[in-house]
Prior knowledge:
Shape: globular
Low-confidence stretches: none
Helix content: 40-55%
Amino acid sequence: MKTVNLDKESKKDLLEKLLKRSPSSYGDFEEKVGKIVNDVRNRRDEAIFDYTRQFDGADISKDNILVTEEEIKEAYDKIDKELLEVMRKALKNIREFHEKQRMNSWFDAKGDGSILGQKITPLGRVGVYVPGGKAVYPSSVLMNILPAKVAGVEEIIMTTPPGKDGKICETTLVAAKEAGADKIFKVGGAQAVAAMAFGTESIPKTDKIVGPGNIYVALAKKAVYGHVSIDSIAGPSEILVLADETANPRFVAADLLSQAEHDEMASAILITTSKKIADEVSREIDGFLKVLSRKDIISKSLDNYGYILIADNMDDAIDAVNEIASEHLEIVTKDPWLTMTKVKNAGAMFLGTYSSEPLGDYFAGPNHVLPTNGTAKFFSPLSVDDFIKKSSVISYSEEALRKVHKDIIKFAQSEQLTAHANSIQVRFE
């Protein structure tokens, strides 16, 4: 990791480098993704079967693309029973947290006969994308399906790439069943996103697509946005630890590496007011790298996007935190709750020595689908709100409208929209 003093120049250089990790910076992939999306839109099932053979080496057809109840039962027979119990504990925490986010319709009636309100309606059908291959993330299955389930979405379908044998990993299948997926389809990549966006003979069109994926999946979501809603175009994972002299350097080092192991584009940053902590964390990282199994990935991640920034004071450190707007922010200071009040931009905040980032990834309950690449300045974590829509409700009596009809006519005439004005006027002729 690079250790530098935090100043305007070093902060600017860091921000510019981090932005290069955004999926929007990989324009050379967009043409290829666009061709896949258009091909699926035109050839539908035929296209997704061809791409599944080409990219996944699996022979998938209309007869076996949908996961059967027998396959799910087989997955339950195979899964580690202790893991299943842990998964169910996590599921309970995630469900309970998201149930607190539920919104209700409301109506405000006044004495003059006017009623204003807001009607909350769950989305009809949602598509959840889940990565496959070497990456098996049952935690992401829970995090993407449960908010939709809590919101009351009528149908939740899931797509995930099959292995060459045409099967799906048992932990992925069991997680999907436990969370409440209605249908699971064996298709991945940009072709899966296109199928959920436009519909095929086998896969129904959805109203929204959520879930993580590689650069092809991210760019496919970007390409279909507008035809269907999406959660976000997620970039590589990132963690920022804000620490003062009271932090435990061994814990900080371990937490930084927990995200660096995701991939070579992941970012791990420490901002501290203590030179001593900076030096000790650096030494601890070197020690961990000798024993961790994914040390090659971690090393490349840290070489490219690993930073230790030493700030003159906590105010400067917090300013940098807000500029970076990290996906995950750990605050390990003398009074983390006080520090937290000064932080404006972060996807998820972990306060105190024993609130390490993996707690949020797997178990605590808040969603781990978070804004990346500085988008925490204007985006929020995935939530129940992502799976509902709001309709305004307006009801006026004759008395209520009579009181204001001249005002409305005046406003409409000022915009030279005479038909608007007439629509009000005719009611009082």
